[in-house]
C-alpha cells in the first residue's frame, strides 16, 4: 500500500473557514473544523471568530490567511449576513476566486439561501454602496454549483462527511498532509502500513485510551490509501449512535454501492445487504469508535470479507479481539502509543506558543503541563490551547487548578469507557483511582475481592484501556483517568462526608478535626506529613485529632492514614474495615478494643509498636506489614492469624523474637525479614528456632537452625547476619515451591545443595563476601545475582540444561568457573581433546591474552599463553 505525503506544498492551508462565531463556534463550526483537521485537511480558523462588528474592516492577518489557502468554506448561518465583517470576508474571498482560481464552497447550516439574501437587502445598518457590493457577492455565490444545504441531509454527521468529501476531491486532489496533532506520526503510519500489507489480515483494530489519537490516525491512514480501493467509507463516532444504526448502515451502503437511494427500512435487511457488499467489493472501510459487538454485526454482518478489502476499526475496548474470534476474519491489533516526551513537547508548544519551542520564562511551567497530560495528544491540545496567549501568572493559576478547570473540558472524552462498565467494575475503578494507583495487583485483589471478582474486573479495565499493569505487576492509571474517577466521586455530593470516598488530605483532615463522620464514607485517606508540608496553617495548629468521626462511619472499609496520631477510644471503629493502613501508628501495642475481625490487610509500617499481639483471632487477615518499625521487639501469637499469606518485617532492627508458631502457618507465601539482624544474631532459644538437622553435602550435625514456614514462594533474608559460623543456619528442605530467594550481604561460607528447589527462578546472593562455592544450582534458575562475592570461586548447576536469563557477577575477583559458561585454567593444563586443531595458538605464544566475552571475569587476569 505505497503512498505518502507530497514533497512540495504550494499553499500553507487547504481551507479557510469563514463563519459567525457567536452563533456556531461552540457547536457546528467546531464540529466541522475538528472533522477537517482529522481528515488531514489543513484548516485556518480564527480562534476568536467574528462575533461583533467592532472591527469593520478585514484585518491584514485574516486577508493573508485567505490568500495562503487553496480554498474557502463559507458557513452561512442565520446571523451571518448581519455582520459587516463576515460580508467583507465573502467579498474578499470571491475576489480571490476571480483572480487566483481560489475554490469556494458555500454551505448553509439550518438556513435557506433566500433568507440570507433578504437579511442583506433589507438591513438598514449599512450604506448603500456596501449593500450593493455584498448583494453582488451573494448573488455570485448563490449561483455556485457547489452549494451544500444542511436540509438535504438526514443527519449532521452525513452533512459534515459530504462537506469533507467535496473538499477532498476538489481541493487536495488526493494529497494528504498530516494534521498538526499527529506529531510523531511517521512511525505509527509505518507500523500500520506493515500490518495492512499482510495478506492474511483484512481486519485491523486500533485500540487505545480516549484522546490518544485513534480517530485522527485512522482518518489519515484512510485518506492516504482510499484511492487504492474501488470503494471506501469512513463512519465516525459510531459509539454515539448506540444501537440506533440504521442511518449509519445506509451511509455505508451508499459509500460502497455508489447509490444515493437506499430504500431498506430495517436494521436486519441492511445487515443482509451489507454482508453481500463486503463480500463482493474491494473496499477500505473505517469504523470509528466501536463500543459494542452488536455494532460490528450491524455494519459488517457475520459473513466473509473480500480478501482484497481492508477494514479498520478504532475502539477503546481491547475486547474487540474476542468479538471477532469466532468469525473467519483475519485479525491484527495495533495498540496506540502515547507521545514520548519530545513529541509531547512539540505538540503542546505548537498549541500554546504557535511554534515547537516554549517561550522564554515558560519552560518550567511547560514541564508541569506535560507531566499532567502524560503524553495524551488530545489533553496536550486542549491544555496548550487554553494557555495560549496567557501571562506567566495566569499559567501558574491555571496549572494549580487543573483538576477543576481544564479537566472538565476533557471529561466527556474519557467518561464513555467508564459508563460502559457494570456496577461492580465501576466501583473497582473508583477504588483504584482514589486509593490504589501504584499498588501491586495481587495486594489490591486480596483487599477488594470480597465484593466482586477483582481479577475479572481488572481484566475488563485493562481491555477498556482504563488501567495498566506495569512489568512489576503494579496497577498504573493515566492521570486523566484517575482525575475522571475522582471527579465522578466528587459529583456525589458537595459535602465530602457525604461522598463514598474521601482522599484529599485537607478534606480528610477537616473531616476528622470536626469529628463529623457519615455512613456514606467507604474509604478515607490522610497523609499528615504531606499536608503539613503543603499547608503551613495546619502545621502550626495544635488541634488534636480524635476517633470521634470514625465512630459514625459504619460502612468504612478502607482506612489509609499516614502519621496521624488519633486520641480516643477504638471500640467504635467500623466492623466492615478490610484495610487498615496506618503508617507511623503511634501506640506501643495494638488496642484491645480495636475490632480487626474482618481485616484482610494491616499495614503499620514505621510504627512505634514495641510488640505485635493480635487482640483476637484474625480469620480474614492475609497481609501483615510492620516494616521499618524500629521499636518492635516481639511478634506474638501468630497462630491467631491462621490464613496469613504475607508477613513483612523488613528493617525491624530491634526485633529479637517471632513466635515459633510461624512455622505452623501453611498459607504463607511471602516472608520478608530483610535487615532483622538481631533476630538471627546469637540466637539460642527463641526467634524462629527449633532443633533440626542441617545438611551440607558432608556431615550431618545437630545445630540450632531456624525453622521456616512452608511452603514459601518468596523469602527475603538479606542483611540478616546469617552464617557467622561455617554452616548455613536455615533448612530449606521443605520449600518445594520457592521461587525467589534473597540471601544477599550475609556472612556464610557455604550453602547446602538447592537442587531440590525445582521452582526456584531467582537467587540473589549479592555481596556475600565469604561465600566460596555455589554448587548444584537447580536447572530451572532464570536469574542469578552474585556481584561482589569476592571469595566465590566456582558455580555449578545440577544439569547442563539450565535456562539462565539474567546473570550479574561484577566484582567476583576470585571466580574462575561458571559451569557451562566459562572456565579459566592455565593453558598448560588443557587436555589435548580441548585443544583439537588449535595450532594457531603457536602464533600467540608468549603474548598476553584475555578471555573475550566477560570483562568482569577476566579483568586483571592476563597471562601468557604456554604451548
TrEMBL record:
UniProt domain TIR: residue ranges: 11-171
InterPro entries listed in its UniProt record: Apaf_helical (IPR042197), Disease_R_plants (IPR044974), Leu-rich_rpt (IPR001611), LRR_dom_sf (IPR032675), NB-ARC (IPR002182), P-loop_NTPase (IPR027417), TIR_dom (IPR000157), Toll_tir_struct_dom_sf (IPR035897)
GO molecular function: ADP binding
Family annotation (Gene3D superfamilies): Helical domain of apoptotic protease-activating factors, P-loop containing nucleotide triphosphate hydrolases, Ribonuclease Inhibitor, Toll/interleukin-1 receptor homology (TIR) domain
Protein's UniProt keywords contain Repeat: yes
UniProt keyword annotations, A-Z: Leucine-rich repeat, Plant defense, Repeat
SMART domains attached to this UniProt entry: TIR
GO BP, sorted A to Z: defense response; signal transduction
Domain of life: Eukaryota
Protein's UniProt name: Putative NB-ARC
Organism: Helianthus annuus
Amino acid at each position: 500500500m505505497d503512498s505518502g505525503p507530497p514533497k512540495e506544498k504550494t499553499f500553507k492551508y487547504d481551507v479557510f473557514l469563514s463563519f459567525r462565531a457567536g452563533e456556531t463556534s461552540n457547536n457546528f463550526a467546531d464540529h466541522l473544523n475538528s472533522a477537517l483537521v482529522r481528515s488531514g485537511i489543513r484548516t485556518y480558523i480564527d480562534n476568536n471568530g467574528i462575533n461583533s462588528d467592532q472591527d469593520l474592516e478585514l484585518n491584514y492577518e485574516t486577508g493573508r490567511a485567505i490568500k495562503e489557502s487553496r480554498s474557502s468554506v463559507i458557513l452561512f448561518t442565520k446571523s451571518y449576513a448581519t455582520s459587516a465583517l463576515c460580508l467583507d470576508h465573502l467579498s474578499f474571498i470571491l475576489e480571490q476566486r476571480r483572480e487566483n482560481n481560489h475554490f469556494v464552497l458555500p454551505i448553509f447550516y439550518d438556513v435557506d439561501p433566500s433568507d440570507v439574501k433578504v437579511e442583506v437587502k433589507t438591513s438598514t445598518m449599512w450604506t448603500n454602496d456596501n449593500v450593493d457590493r455584498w448583494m453582488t457577492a451573494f448573488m455570485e455565490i448563490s449561483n455556485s454549483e457547489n452549494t451544500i444545504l444542511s436540509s438535504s441531509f438526514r443527519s449532521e454527521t452525513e452533512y459534515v462527511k459530504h462537506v469533507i468529501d467535496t473538499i477532498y476531491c476538489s481541493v487536495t486532489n488526493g494529497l494528504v498532509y498530516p494534521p498538526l496533532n499527529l506529531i510523531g506520526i511517521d512511525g505509527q503510519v509505518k507500523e500500520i502500513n506493515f500490518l495492512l500489507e499482510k495478506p492474511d489480515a483484512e481486519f485491523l483494530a486500533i485500540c487505545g485510551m480516549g484522546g490518544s489519537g485513534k480517530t485522527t490516525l485512522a482518518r489519515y491512514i484512510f485518506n492516504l490509501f482510499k484511492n487504492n480501493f474501488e470503494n471506501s467509507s469512513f463512519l465516525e463516532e459510531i459509539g454515539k449512535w448506540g444501537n440506533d444504526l440504521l442511518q449509519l448502515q445506509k451511509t455505508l451502503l451508499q459509500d460502497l454501492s455508489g447509490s444515493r437511494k437506499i430504500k431498506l427500512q430495517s436494521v436486519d435487511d441492511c445487515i443482509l445487504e451489507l454482508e453481500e457488499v463486503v463480500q463482493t467489493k474491494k473496499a477500505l472501510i473505517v469504523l470509528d469508535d466501536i463500543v459494542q459487538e452488536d455494532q460490528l454485526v450491524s455494519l459488517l454482518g457475520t459473513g466473509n470479507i473480500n480478501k482484497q478489502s481492508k477494514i479498520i476499526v478504532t475502539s477503546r475496548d481491547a475486547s474487540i479481539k474476542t468479538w471477532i474470534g469466532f468469525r473467519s476474519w483475519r485479525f491484527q491489533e495495533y495498540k496506540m502509543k502515547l507521545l514520548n516526551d519530545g513529541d509531547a513537547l512539540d505538540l503542546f508548544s505548537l498549541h500554546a506558543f504557535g511554534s515547537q519551542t516554549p517561550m522564554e520564562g515558560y519552560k518550567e511551567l511547560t514541564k508541569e503541563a506535560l507531566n499532567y497530560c502524560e503524553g495524551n495528544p488530545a489533553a496536550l491540545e486542549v491544555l496548550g490551547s487554553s494557555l495560549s496567549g496567557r501571562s506567566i501568572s495566569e499559567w501558574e493559576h491555571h496549572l494549580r487548578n487543573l483538576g477543576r478547570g481544564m479537566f472538565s473540558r476533557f471529561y466527556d472524552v474519557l467518561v464513555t469507557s467508564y459508563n460502559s462498565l457494570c456496577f461492580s467494575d465501576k466501583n473497582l475503578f473508583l477504588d483504584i483511582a482514589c486509593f490504589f494507583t501504584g499498588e501491586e495487583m495481587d495486594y489490591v485483589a486480596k483487599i477488594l475481592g470480597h465484593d466482586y471478582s477483582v481479577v475479572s474486573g481488572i481484566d475488563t479495565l485493562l481491555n477498556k484501556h482504563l488501567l495498566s499493569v506495569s512489568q512489576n505487576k503494579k496497577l498504573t492509571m493515566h492521570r486523566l483517568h484517575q482525575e475522571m474517577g475522582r471527579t465522578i466521586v466528587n459529583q456525589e455530593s458537595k459535602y465530602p462526608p457525604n461522598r463514598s470516598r474521601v482522599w484529599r488530605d485537607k478534606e480528610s483532615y477537616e473531616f476528622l478535626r470536626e469529628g463529623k463522620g457519615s455512613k456514606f464514607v467507604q474509604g478515607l485517606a490522610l497523609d499528615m506529613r504531606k499536608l503539613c508540608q503543603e499547608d503551613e496553617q495546619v502545621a502550626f495548629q495544635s488541634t488534636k485529632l480524635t476517633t470521634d468521626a470514625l465512630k459514625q462511619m459504619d460502612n468504612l472499609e478502607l482506612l489509609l492514614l499516614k502519621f496521624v496520631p488519633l486520641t480516643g477510644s477504638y471500640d467504635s471503629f467500623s466492623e466492615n474495615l478490610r484495610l487498615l493502613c496506618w503508617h507511623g501508628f503511634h501506640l506501643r501495642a495494638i488496642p484491645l478494643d480495636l475490632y480487626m475481625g474482618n481485616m484482610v490487610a494491616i499495614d503499620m509500617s514505621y510504627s512505634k509498636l514495641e510488640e505485635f499481639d493480635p487482640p483476637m483471632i484474625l480469620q480474614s487477615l492475609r497481609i501483615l506489614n510492620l516494616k521499618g518499625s524500629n521499636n518492635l521487639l516481639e511478634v506474638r501469637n501468630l497462630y491467631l492469624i491462621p490464613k496469613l499469606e504475607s508477613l513483612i518485617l523488613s528493617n525491624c532492627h530491634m526485633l529479637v523474637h517471632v513466635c515459633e508458631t510461624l512455622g505452623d502457618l501453611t498459607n504463607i507465601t511471602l516472608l520478608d525479614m530483610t535487615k532483622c539482624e538481631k533476630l538471627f544474631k546469637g540466637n539460642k532459644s527463641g526467634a524462629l528456632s527449633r532443633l533440626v538437622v542441617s545438611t551440607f553435602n558432608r556431615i550431618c550435625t545437630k545445630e540450632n537452625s531456624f525453622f521456616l514456614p512452608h511452603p514459601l514462594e518468596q523469602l527475603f533474608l538479606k542483611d540478616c547476619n546469617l552464617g557467622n559460623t561455617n554452616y548455613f543456619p536455615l533448612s530449606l528442605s521443605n520449600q518445594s515451591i520457592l521461587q525467589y530467594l534473597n540471601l544477599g550481604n550475609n556472612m556464610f561460607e557455604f550453602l547446602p545443595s538447592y537442587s531440590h528447589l525445582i521452582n526456584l527462578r531467582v537467587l540473589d546472593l549479592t555481596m556475600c563476601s565469604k561465600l566460596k562455592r555455589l554448587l548444584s544450582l537447580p536447572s530451572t534458575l532464570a536469574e542469578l545475582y552474585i556481584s561482589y562475592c569476592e571469595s566465590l570461586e566456582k558455580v555449578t548447576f545440577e544439569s547442563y540444561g539450565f535456562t539462565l536469563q539474567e546473570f550479574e557477577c561484577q566484582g567476583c575477583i576470585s571466580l574462575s568457573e561458571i559451569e557451562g559458561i566459562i572456565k579459566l585454567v592455565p593453558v598448560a593444563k588443557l587436555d589435548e581433546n580441548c585443544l583439537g586443531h588449535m595450532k594457531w595458538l603457536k602464533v600467540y605464544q608468549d603474548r598476553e591474552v584475555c578471555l573475550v566475552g566477560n570483562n568482569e571475569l577476566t579483568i586483571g587476569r592476563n597471562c601468557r599463553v604456554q604451548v
